[in-house]
């Protein structure tokens, strides 16, 4: 028996660990450090219909136990992702979750229809919550009706299950989760980054060229845990949890909260081996906690 | 081959105002083959500060498996670094990026190495290599003020060395660009690292006529090319989609290659 | 000239530094460490009409660069605050900002009407954003219309200017700020804590007896800066900023963002002298930055 | 008088499994006058971990301006503490709270000092004081297992000492409460510190007949009475508004004073 296996819509995961979108590119760089087939899955960088350069630099700023980013969805565009990045990833035995973004519904459906046909793309992650894009993307992640609509539209064209990535920058996260569930989402991923800003002491201006950015890292973990704890009790679709995960202990905490699997983002930057390490160390922690199979952890905080 | 290793502090000393020289030893050194590459450091195992810090490799000693870097202890991460003592370890990821092309200068040629402030250190290993290839190296090193000057003797041992200070408290009063102008124009190549303003000025003045190599700085996340934090536009497509990453395509670029 | 002085509705501050509500009790404990008259002002613990015991313990949990609290507004009640705590504070030459809380509009008006008559109470801080109280308090802080109503009602009975404390747990902080400004608020204080949770690795249950709690400390600073930066550009009433302040540099960052004064909360726990230290060190930092009077900093990030 | 001082590490050593004994020196010691008080520590100047850690004072040496504490290095803060070396400093706030009332036991009386795990340390200074007042002290110290036992000899030097381990790997197999029952019932007073379960059992069994003083533990914010993190109900008003703060009213309470 594989104590770490997880079955989710579209995804048979060897283990619950995957790198979070935007923090792992398309895997090439991290393949220097360990075998990517080891991962439960890979969430690739957001893909938009056309290539995007993204925001001006500086694009990152450090904060207490966290960081801000305003990459601005830089990516090579749908065509190149399909012709170059995804084929490269087929050499690894690892399911790909394609993160897709856009500024109008047609962007999402255009990318979804095509990328969901790639043989190694097993699920989509609808990024309706990127805080760093100016053109209206915000509404998708903050207005339940709009979120439901885009989910529906993507579901209609996708060949693979659709996970919707929720923004934490809302008053009522449960309402958002229920809306996308009603729109047909097969799962949720949460949380995306919190909107934040840092100012430069000398210039008085924002450190990020984009002014504000998305806050990630350990600082936001308590917010992620709270939201997953709430949402998991109110929806019946599974959650892939993320936000500040840095260790096996964090993984277990996310599962306890109600996540079925997790993604690791920012921690890849301080420790490029983090995903691999966590996978290696999880069984020992399960032993210590007297847990046979990881699935026993899911939702234990409220069950 | 990029490695990740907890390397051991061999020596740490302050060599100028807020400027520290740190020597580390470990297997990772064996992978260091170009001057101008950098390492990405984490001096703690806590969450604050969270991110690694990029610092250039200043000199490499393969025999002793040691390398030296010079850095300014200014913010949180570098201050923490400066507290590390002999025998303690530091988490190093490296060597990263593409350094200065030594092979672009040949035996007997004269080249300028132009550094500003904490941009000076990577030029030291470069200078040693050029010198040992029989290249004639001239160093022009700019600092804010007298107290910030370091490695003058080290550079002087390798070739002609001009020190400029912005406030005139030491050496030539003025900027490195002033010094270049004052030199006889017999050099073929410039290698430079320092503040963006300085690099821009050098590119503008000499980019067309000379071979010019510039080492850029940018805020980084991963340091290895995965996060898209450190990109710049390519010069042939300044408003388009094509880009280079300072961390993995750079930090050294040929003048005219990217928009700085 | 006092380089640190600030004039705000109802408040002539020697300096912009005050302890945040709930992190300084009624001042008695910290008076052992330094002269309270040194402070710009004191924000006292939330007062409710009746005494409250608050939530069961554990009430605090540490997180990365932050902490969660679920004190539950424990306080001795209006009568005792007026008869014991406020008179005790009159020995110090320091304006008091009375933080008032409740679960219905009548609670707020009852406390406001009386406490605003105390001679050393120079302003009220309407806590419409406490995340740790079950009984409906949440609506005050998240629904603009409701926030406006409670502000109006309190303004009608208060003898002193009214500052409204905004919750960061909303989709649109500017909308909330504008609503309370329209309700007659003389100023804003922001931010209160972010809703968060931490689970215990052994028991799988929340560390806090109240399950969730309010996240404070350096972890939330980027969120506070972002919100103050936004709100200060959209309202014409002053802001007292808070959220993770730990140093003079942080104070300046909050002023740059658009705050006119600041409050320090969690940092009092790790360093009981923090408010006093920051007041002492500010002039030197102003020198370093070439700033004559602190007021030059206000809103410099967007001016 | 509570003080805040960066105190100097005089010695740090591991004395049992994950248990460390740490001695600090500084002026703050002069303010320590009661056994059972605690200090609130920060072993770093970073933001992670953020909060101080409450640790009991285990013994006080006024002549040398030193005090000793014993703690389990378990989580982030205590592990960090355990890495502090001689000559380094630690930020200490203290002494805090109200300790054990030594004066409640008089010359010739027999008292029990009952400790569990990391509740044992504060009993050591208490025992020394009682002994020097001519009180006959009996120690009953419970630990999980043999590897966790510490200070047996130290306590034995002051009076009769029984060690119990939960797994029977050392001393008496069982809990401290079992040992109390087995003793002849000639004592007048119990002073105790340890897990809440143990304190509850002692209060229940002996709270009515004996003088019983219990030192409680609670998660803390400020440690000085300002934040209301550590309150408990008073026993005479268990569902009402009256309360005591463990940090400033306690940590030692008389049995029956508060709800534990
Ligand atoms: C390729 C490269 C090589 C470098 N080589 C050297 C060197 O040899 N010696 C030296 O002293 N400095 C060097 N720097 C600059 C050095 O990285 C920064 O001074 C350092 O990261 C600042 O960290 P801090 O902890 O002092 O500052 P903080 O203010 O705490 O830094 C906050 C965040 O901003 C980033 N940051 C701040 N300043 C810079 C900067 N100038 N460049 C990039 N990121 C920055 C930090 O990495 C961190 O993520 C180099 C930078 C790059 C990109
Ligand atoms: C009055 C008092 C006296 C104490 N005396 C001692 C002593 O002499 N020796 C000793 O080993 N321990 C003692 N403790 C317990 C000690 O405070 C905790 O073991 C310690 O705070 C845990 O910190 P950590 O970094 O290991 O754990 P972490 O898990 O990192 O702690 C996280 C947070 O929870 C708090 N916390 C965790 N466990 C406890 C606990 N049991 N009590 C209170 N807060 C806790 C921490 O202070 C911190 O804020 C005492 C506690 C109190 C209240
Ligand atoms: C540099 C960076 C880039 C990111 N890019 C994306 C992205 O393209 N699409 C997306 O859905 N999320 C993106 N995110 C958000 C992460 O996937 C993740 O939701 C968030 O960072 C929280 O996890 P963490 O704290 O482990 O980083 C990005 C985060 C970072 C730090
Ligand atoms: C222990 C604790 C108790 C608090 N109690 C109150 C309160 O009674 N009323 C209130 O408006 N805010 C309360 N707050 C919120 C603070 O006033 C402040 O808004 C918040 O903690 C952010 O600032 P900080 O990061 O500096 O702590 C409390 C915060 C903490 C940590
Ligand atoms: S720092 Fe991540 S791509 Fe360069
Ligand atoms: S810990 Fe703050 S009141 Fe006791």
UniProtKB/TrEMBL annotation, chains A, C:
<dbReference type="InterPro" id="IPR001295">
    <property type="entry name" value="Dihydroorotate_DH_CS"/>
</dbReference>
<feature type="active site" description="Nucleophile">
    <location>
        <position position="130"/>
    </location>
</feature>
<keyword id="KW-0288">FMN</keyword>
<keyword id="KW-0285">Flavoprotein</keyword>
<feature type="binding site">
    <location>
        <position position="21"/>
    </location>
    <ligand>
        <name>FMN</name>
    </ligand>
</feature>
<keyword id="KW-0520">NAD</keyword>
<feature type="binding site">
    <location>
        <position position="165"/>
    </location>
    <ligand>
        <name>FMN</name>
    </ligand>
</feature>
<dbReference type="InterPro" id="IPR050074">
    <property type="entry name" value="DHO_dehydrogenase"/>
</dbReference>
<dbReference type="InterPro" id="IPR033888">
    <property type="entry name" value="DHOD_1B"/>
</dbReference>
<comment type="similarity">
    <text>Belongs to the dihydroorotate dehydrogenase family. Type 1 subfamily.</text>
</comment>
<comment type="subunit">
    <text>Heterotetramer of 2 PyrK and 2 PyrD type B subunits.</text>
</comment>
<dbReference type="InterPro" id="IPR013785">
    <property type="entry name" value="Aldolase_TIM"/>
</dbReference>
<feature type="domain" description="Dihydroorotate dehydrogenase catalytic">
    <location>
        <begin position="4"/>
        <end position="286"/>
    </location>
</feature>
<comment type="function">
    <text>Catalyzes the conversion of dihydroorotate to orotate with NAD(+) as electron acceptor.</text>
</comment>
<feature type="binding site">
    <location>
        <position position="127"/>
    </location>
    <ligand>
        <name>FMN</name>
    </ligand>
</feature>
<dbReference type="GO" id="GO:0004589">
    <property type="term" value="F:dihydroorotate dehydrogenase (NAD+) activity"/>
</dbReference>
<dbReference type="InterPro" id="IPR005720">
    <property type="entry name" value="Dihydroorotate_DH_cat"/>
</dbReference>
<keyword id="KW-0963">Cytoplasm</keyword>
<dbReference type="InterPro" id="IPR024920">
    <property type="entry name" value="Dihydroorotate_DH_1"/>
</dbReference>
<dbReference type="Pfam" id="PF01180">
    <property type="entry name" value="DHO_dh"/>
</dbReference>
<comment type="pathway">
    <text>Pyrimidine metabolism; UMP biosynthesis via de novo pathway; orotate from (S)-dihydroorotate (NAD(+) route): step 1/1.</text>
</comment>
<feature type="binding site">
    <location>
        <begin position="243"/>
        <end position="244"/>
    </location>
    <ligand>
        <name>FMN</name>
    </ligand>
</feature>
Automatic annotation (TrEMBL), chains B, D:
<keyword id="KW-0249">Electron transport</keyword>
<dbReference type="InterPro" id="IPR023455">
    <property type="entry name" value="Dihydroorotate_DHASE_ETsu"/>
</dbReference>
<keyword id="KW-0411">Iron-sulfur</keyword>
<keyword id="KW-0408">Iron</keyword>
<dbReference type="InterPro" id="IPR037117">
    <property type="entry name" value="Dihydroorotate_DH_ele_sf"/>
</dbReference>
<dbReference type="GO" id="GO:0016491">
    <property type="term" value="F:oxidoreductase activity"/>
</dbReference>
<dbReference type="InterPro" id="IPR019480">
    <property type="entry name" value="Dihydroorotate_DH_Fe-S-bd"/>
</dbReference>
<dbReference type="Pfam" id="PF10418">
    <property type="entry name" value="DHODB_Fe-S_bind"/>
</dbReference>
<feature type="binding site">
    <location>
        <begin position="70"/>
        <end position="72"/>
    </location>
    <ligand>
        <name>FAD</name>
    </ligand>
</feature>
<dbReference type="GO" id="GO:0044205">
    <property type="term" value="P:'de novo' UMP biosynthetic process"/>
</dbReference>
<keyword id="KW-0274">FAD</keyword>
<dbReference type="InterPro" id="IPR017938">
    <property type="entry name" value="Riboflavin_synthase-like_b-brl"/>
</dbReference>
<dbReference type="InterPro" id="IPR050353">
    <property type="entry name" value="PyrK_electron_transfer"/>
</dbReference>
<keyword id="KW-0479">Metal-binding</keyword>
<feature type="binding site">
    <location>
        <position position="227"/>
    </location>
    <ligand>
        <name>[2Fe-2S] cluster</name>
    </ligand>
</feature>
<dbReference type="InterPro" id="IPR039261">
    <property type="entry name" value="FNR_nucleotide-bd"/>
</dbReference>
<keyword id="KW-0285">Flavoprotein</keyword>
<dbReference type="GO" id="GO:0009055">
    <property type="term" value="F:electron transfer activity"/>
</dbReference>
<feature type="domain" description="FAD-binding FR-type">
    <location>
        <begin position="2"/>
        <end position="102"/>
    </location>
</feature>
<dbReference type="GO" id="GO:0050660">
    <property type="term" value="F:flavin adenine dinucleotide binding"/>
</dbReference>
<comment type="subunit">
    <text>Heterotetramer of 2 PyrK and 2 PyrD type B subunits.</text>
</comment>
<keyword id="KW-0665">Pyrimidine biosynthesis</keyword>
